[in-house]
Amino acid sequence: MTLGDGGAHDAAPGDGLEGAPAGAATFDADGALRVLDQPPNELLGGSVLEFLRALGGPTAFVQRGRHRNPRRVLVTLLHGDEPSGIMALWAWLQSGATPFADTLFIVGNVDAATTPPGFAWRHLDTERDLNRCFAEPYTGRQGTLCRSILDVIRDFEPACLIDVHNTSGVGPAFGVTPEHSVVHESLMTGFSEKLIVSGIRLGALMEAANEICPSITVECGGAIDTYADNVAEQGFDVFLQADDPLRTEGRDTPMEVLHHPVRIELTPERTIGYGDRPGAADVVLLPEVERFNFGVVTPDHQLGWLGEHGLGALTAFTVDGRDVISDVLTRDQDGAMRAVRDLKLFMVTTRPQAARDDCLFYAIRADDVRW
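Structure (tokenized):
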């Protein structure tokens, strides 16, 4: 597939956007990604879900800007239960606004998002997590789709990319980047002044796309939080209207940059629950644990309880493969789970499925020292 420069086209039919008639859709070789040659405004409908049902599946399209460059990419809905990005995109298209430069939009997990009751499923039970499949060997339906998405991005030759998500718990907006630079900080303009630098490789789009152009993931806040919707809309507008989203001079607000997180995950076969007292689950987190998002947790704070397996129910792997869970958390004589040292937590969730399928939370040493 080749995404054109907005000028005259003479490519053969089937080569992608080049040569496609106005309003036509083309598909990659495996039919995984629908590619439109212009915004599908006629499909907007009366709601975001109507729009997604009309798209019918993963879709990419280019909106021509007032200028050809610097080209940029916005990705939304790689997780079907994270609607703030697609709501911002729908609002942007409804407004009739024109971006400063040509922009490639990619809408990911339409199937999961439109499965009743709507925006309830991260991914379908029969599929892998789409945002864990952007890595070799690109097998299966999700792997094929991820490879197609990367091919479209590469052909577009963008200057930068932002992938918009919601957090699995309630908390402030922040960004994640695999590489720290002032350019990556600049991409956060309009979204947040918090940036996490992580070398953890999960198979996320951000990791693969950053090899093509500067790329970040933006976590706008909780999926049912109006705050998150506002963050996404504001961020979209700033990013799309900027003459140079990579400009590093003139930024007034300092960025809070945090390094070296570890992911706190359940070990295989272990269970999680939430409550205000110990329970049958191997790990029980307090119902109000989300209040620790981006706050400092000290050893005096109780996070929950650990059952008979103790710390064996959890892992916290570093980038180099060391499990440092005993340097992060401890179980006291009453079974209470506490921090070993002052920590900053983020992505803390009270959703059992998210905790099981992804992680309980991330932790960073408050002194910003590497684990």
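Confidence is low (pLDDT under 50) at residues 4-25. The longest strand covers residues 67-76.
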